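Q: Can someone sanity-check these two? First one:
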Amino acid sequence: MFFYLSKLFTLLFSLYPGAYFVLLFLAWRLTKDTPRRKTRRLFLAGFLLFGVLSTDLCADWILGSLENDYPLPELAELNRADGIIVLGGMMDPVAQRGTVPEFTDGANRLFAGLLLLNAEKAPAMILSGGSGLILQGGPTESALLRNWLLQQRMARPDQIIAEEESRNTAENALNSDRIASKRNWRRVFLVTSAFHMPRSVAVFDKLTDLEVVPYPTDYRSAAFFAGPEALFPSAHGIQKTWIGLKEYIGILAYWIKGYI
């Protein structure tokens, strides 16, 4: 039930950018009991707030507050672990046509996991991710990625484990822990997007007995001030802001649920 409610909540909130202008227009035109001047002030305040949230400067501040919790460690300084767990969200199975995965912005998760694997920091890697669709249809992400890696000879069959049942971060932790326990893993690298790492680490710490070593990737916030472009509203800016706000909503929901 929690999974389905979270999907509905996300859908409703993702309508915000378009609904914002519609609702403000209706407030401007249809409000009768409120003086027109007050309505216009409300419209202006809402418009300015949306504009600020649409800037890279604001978006980077929100995302950076999540991404900077776990700095990226130097590869050479990492001690060997029992395994690697890569959380899903790297491709779009629905858009899949040929044999090459339809990668999304989170593709760095897969390549960061491969980096650790090829550096011999662990003997095997779990790709944790089933179907994120409400109806749970179509092929799973982890199976598609495993098949592709093996076809391209990027890894051996014994090095890649596809965990195909997870639908969210909590299930990533529980299902990966079950596989890790069968293999007697104790210390693992956890690979996911930097903005998603605080919630992921908290979930793994709460729901599993694994010793987690965070290895963040897929950074979205700017590493330095880009200049005047960062001060202007853009679709890219509001997208990054939405990612950050959605992650904070996820942290709150997981805290309420008891996952962290």
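And here is the second, same format, sequence then tokens:
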Amino acid sequence: MTADGLLAALGLYGGTFAVAAVSALVPLVAIDVFLVGVALVVPGAALPALVALAAAGQLAGKLPIYWACRGVAALPGRHRARLDRVRAWVARWERAPRAVLLASAVLGLPPFSIISTAAGVLGVDARTFSLLVLAGRGLRFTALVAIASAAG
């Protein structure tokens, strides 16, 4: 389905949420490009809602990965001791996983998909994960939309 078909089927708001959720799972789908395109053709009054929906869609797409990694990390196995050592090593820098998650959500570096997965494996609290993803993606998308609107 093309972006036009998706928007026709789900509307602008539903389509934005869907594209964001799919892009959280499929790296070839770029929510950033979608939002820039939308910002160039949609009136400015609708953009804050679209930014919020895109951030929520990204969270909706990342949460299943996060929870799956939390579950895998809890399983016993031969790598359990190594994972416990990594968790202990990361715990020395109490706020580091949260700072890296937020920075990745805003900047995309290190790759957000990898950091989201690591957050689940390392046991970052679900509420903290959700808040940081929403805040970080919201900041990123706000900046993209603002730049695109100003340029267009």
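A (reply): Looked at the second one. The CA atoms of residues 40 and 150 lie 9 Å apart. The mean pLDDT is 89.
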